[in-house]
TrEMBL record:
Protein name: Ni/Fe-hydrogenase, b-type cytochrome subunit
InterPro entries: Cyt_b561_bac/Ni-Hgenase (IPR011577), Di-haem_cyt_TM (IPR016174), Hydrogenase_cytochrome (IPR051542), Ni-dep_Hydgase_cyt-B (IPR000516)
Record's keyword annotation contains Iron: yes
Taxonomic lineage of the native organism: Bacteria, Pseudomonadati, Pseudomonadota, Gammaproteobacteria, Alteromonadales
Keyword tags: Cell membrane, Electron transport, Heme, Iron, Membrane, Metal-binding, Transmembrane, Transmembrane helix, Transport
């Protein structure tokens, strides 16, 4: 059965936003895997031959970690100063109780959702909360780095790390927080992929593909 509805083709994500999205996804996957391995190095037996396995995993973790720090800075800059205001515009819906109700009802198949920008209010707040967790991971990661490698960048960061530790209590708690918050990413990734697919089906648009091609398609007439 064919269902012909005219669609508009809208350019929503610039190349730099898409590249940042996929580099961030890659870095987070690498960080979760290597991070859990650092805390439980199960591949080499205790007291076994020293093949520097742990050293390579730590190296990979740091490369992915600094990539995440760089992307977080670039994305913060783009949020505020990008020529396209499609992300910033979404904030209007966050401060409107009417839009929140419309958003939550629409997820339950009750009515439709008309967004001011690219994200709905629930989606916006979820990404904002995740960004805060990423910032905490970057700061705690850099504090740990300063205490593992005392030379180079690690050493340069040491005075700032020393000043920040009292805010967390102890260095041990910095490590625990860095470890526990890793689960936020594991849970987020599952829900994020589910919601991306769900939203494409529910609102009949190009949800997942738009972060690859940059284009979204919207029905010009709602059925
Ligand atoms: C999504 C982001 C991140 C995740 C999920 C993550 C995860 C983890 C986990 C699970 C550990 C092991 C903690 C333990 O010992 O129990 C760890 C350790 C560590 N992480 Fe991260 N991390 C992230 C970001 C970063 C960043 C941005 C940096 C720094 C640039 C970083 C630097 C470190 C360092 C230095 C260690 C300690 C390594 C060692 O013991 O030699 N991490 N990370």
């Amino acid at each position: 059965m064919s269902n012909k509805v005219p669609h508009s083709r809208d350019y929503i994500f610039t190349p730099v936003i898409r590249i940042c999205h996929w580099l961030r996804a890659l870095s987070i996957v690498l960080l979760v895997i290597s991070g859990f391995y650092i805390s439980w190095p199960f591949l080499v037996q205790y007291g076994g031959p020293d093949n520097l396995m742990q050293g390579w995993v730590r190296f990979g973790h740091l490369v992915a970690g600094f990539l995440l720090v760089a992307i977080t800075i670039i994305r913060a800059y783009l949020y505020f100063f990008s020529k396209s205001d499609i992300e910033r515009r979404s904030f209007r819906d966050v401060i409107s109780p009417k839009k929140w109700i419309e958003n939550l009802l629409a997820y339950g198949y009750m009515g439709n959702m008309h967004k001011s920008g690219v994200y709905g209010p629930l989606q916006y707040m979820t990404y904002f909360a995740l960004t805060l967790v990423i910032v905490v991971m970057c700061v705690t990661g850099l504090i740990l780095h300063a205490h593992v490698y005392h030379e180079g960048l690690g050493g340069a960061f040491m005075p700032i790390a020393e000043a920040l530790i009292p805010m967390f209590g102890t260095l041990a708690f910095v490590r625990e927080l860095h470890h526990f918050l890793t689960w936020v990413f594991v849970i987020f990734m599952v829900i994020h992929v589910y919601m991306a697919v769900f939203s494409g089906i529910r609102f009949k648009h190009n949800s997942v593909d738009s972060i690859v091609s940059g284009y979204d398609y919207h029905p010009m007439k709602h059925k």
